[in-house]
Design brief:
This protein is 35% helix and 23% strand. By secondary structure, it is of the alpha/beta class. Helix 11 links the parallel strand 6 and strand 7 (263-269).
């Protein structure tokens, strides 16, 4: 008789509780001891991958690699290449991309693939969807990392009164913003998942009923809810608010504090297993380096010094053996802190994530050259206006369109925003394009990206633009 999925979930969660205790102990280690753990786990991972993964086994033979392997000996994999070679990467021959896609097409709730694997997919907001399979022990580690984040926000398992935790995330059971909360909603926590794709009016009604103690969601959705609270339609008093999946701006943080008070946290994570959590002492987000290794690199994959903005990051999961994630390219432009954190944790901190490199817009410059305009330059202008609740920058062949959701009574904001943005572009050396500003009440349909937001949208072919900057 097949084991019920609910029993599997309970077994996974029991294992996750034990894993959580181990993870928390790592937070009190000296840096040298953490690095020794990283090296042991990396050695084990690379040895496993070169024996069990057809791709890495062939690679090791072709390159004449010998133990102990160095991480830098392994190729960098972007999302497109990773998915094209999926069947050669996985270490269980029963897994193939075609079979997993068949499984995902039929998933409606709590199903495990072959009774052994959780299968997730990314939202695809960067243009490519990635499929990730976790065996049950690996999935328990993902749950343990989520429990560690909850603990850092002051919510402990086994507390007498289980606080109400509401996550507004993807409506799909294939996304971790949906799957992780519901996987753990089995005794230790009281989780509710609301779809970010639902009409705001519907979310307001449900939140007024649920009255969350912790409210988690995409920052763009939190911005809409702040407006609803100000207008009196939403009436909640969360003690903890956490944003993730999109940038949490300083302006939104101020708005959340002003409206709800309590604690505000920024969470960073990827479906591939990278996790980071905001530090309440020294600022920035601590990377869970006991679970993975992050390399911050420039356009040519050379390491950049701490304190310097990188062009992208390379992530290696130290706990993913079913589907090795080794030097996996993520387009987030990140700055790591150069100094240890005053809180005493051994983990390095992310000081800033200045958007994705595929969100860079290229505008005309002097002599026909192209000027790269990073997302941070738009943020600098638009987030200086307290009245702007949300924004979207659309790059069309004939110029830029700004779509702004703004507080009532600020209809004269458009001219000021346009002038400030044109001034910023001139200081960057760009020939000022046509810039139009549109004031709207909502921005776009989220259903295509599982409820995630995209602040920068380009309708211009970047290939020629990038070449012109070199």
């Amino acid at each position: 008789m097949a084991k019920p999925n609910r029993l599997r979930r309970l077994e996974d969660l029991v294992r996750a509780v034990a894993y959580r205790q181990t993870l928390i102990r790592h937070e009190y280690w000296p840096r040298t001891k953490l690095e020794e753990l990283q090296q042991r786990r990396l050695t084990k991972l690379l040895d496993w991958a070169t024996r069990k993964s057809p791709l890495y086994r062939e690679l090791a033979g072709a390159r004449g690699m010998t133990k102990p392997y160095s991480l830098q000996d392994f190729p960098i994999m972007d999302k497109k290449s990773y998915m094209e070679r999926f069947d050669e990467i996985v270490t269980d021959p029963r897994l193939s991309l075609a079979r997993l896609q068949e499984h995902m097409a039929s998933v409606s709730g709590d199903e495990y693939y072959l009774g052994e694997y959780r299968v997730l997919t990314t939202a695809g907001s960067s243009g490519h969807k990635t499929v990730i399979a976790f065996n049950r022990k690996e999935w328990s580690l993902q749950e343990a990392a989520s429990m560690r984040i909850a603990s850092m926000m002051g919510v402990l398992p086994f507390s007498r009164k289980r606080p109400q935790i509401v996550t507004i995330g993807s409506p799909s059971p294939l996304h971790d913003s949906y799957r992780l909360p519901l996987s753990m909603d089995i005794g230790l926590y009281r989780y509710h998942v609301l779809p970010a794709t639902a009409p705001v009016e519907e979310l307001v009604c449900q939140l007024n009923t649920l009255q969350p103690y912790i409210l988690r969601g995409f920052p763009s959705m939190l911005g809409l809810l702040v407006t609803e609270q100000i207008l009196g339609r939403l009436d909640i008093r969360p003690c903890v608010v956490a944003g993730g999946g999109e940038p949490l701006s300083g302006e939104l943080r101020k708005q959340v504090n002003s409206v709800w008070g309590g604690s505000v946290f920024d969470i960073y994570g990827t479906q591939e297993g990278l996790r980071a959590m905001e530090c309440g002492v020294d600022g920035g987000m601590h990377i869970f380096e006991d679970l993975g290794i992050v390399e911050v690199v420039d356009e040519d994959n050379r390491p950049v010094p701490d304190g310097t903005l990188g062009h992208k990051i390379l992530f290696t999961s130290l706990v993913g053996f079913t589907q090795p994630v080794i030097r996996y390219e993520i387009s987030d432009m990140m700055v790591l802190a150069a100094e240890p954190c005053a809180c005493g944790q051994p983990f390095r901190r992310i000081l800033a994530i200045n958007g994705r490199n595929d969100d860079v817009i290229y505008l005309e410059g002097p002599g026909g050259n192209k000027v790269a305009v990073h997302p941070v330059h738009f943020w600098d202008v638009l987030e200086s206006y307290e009245a702007i609740r949300q924004y979207q920058v659309i790059h069309d062949p004939d110029g830029l369109r700004l779509r702004l959701v703004f507080a009532e009574g600020n209809g004269n904001i458009a001219r000021s925003v346009r002038e400030q943005l044109l001034h910023k572009l001139r200081t960057l050396g760009a020939t000022c394009p046509s810039v139009s500003v549109e004031l709207v009440t909502t921005l776009e349909d989220r259903s295509g990206n599982m409820g995630k937001w995209k602040n920068i949208v380009s309708n211009v072919d970047k290939s020629e633009s990038v070449a012109a900057t070199r």
